[in-house]
Amino acid sequence: MKRAAWLSALPLLLAAEALRVDVALFSQGNMADWQSRQFSGTTRYTLGEDDGRRALRADSRAAASGLFRKVQVDPAATPYLYWSWKVDGVLRGNDERSRDGDDYAARVYVVFSGGLWFWRTRAVNYVWSSHQHIEKTWLNAYTGNARMIAVESGATHAGKWIHERRDVRADYRRLFGEEPGRIVAVALMTDTDNTGATAGAWYGDIWFAAE
Question: What's the predicted TM-score (pTM) here?
């Protein structure tokens, strides 16, 4: 492309880049900027291959630790969150709305800034629920600043890759009754510390987009 043509196309190229914000590129073997957070025991996270695709594998045995990545995302510009995941199975007999049962084979957190008021930092927690029906929402068992949404439920689709798309801005409005601040982090966690159970899951690439 000649210099003049390239310069004339630059605004369009920049606009196209702004329409997508990559958060996780596990398919490329990229774990840059992901950090661990341990709560109880250690869930093992490793890059691997499943069904011909490269992804992040999580294995939890009576443990709760997660991975998170700090980001800066404007939910007004790129409100749609895309990801894929797969669980080996779901947990049995736990009440996910209680502290004793607050375990999930897979979950994806979206963390929003509270601005200068750090105590107002909030999170929308997309979970593969064991028992709650799809689109059911409830308060996190440990903090009022997090809300749970069952995106998948039960074992019907266990063992299959499922692709998700959520309007996080609309979900935040519905759950908290106001406009969200900037998205400042995304986290993943497969946890079984409360139930003492075993769970395994896969996580694919994650990104935000304008539509």
Answer: 0.89
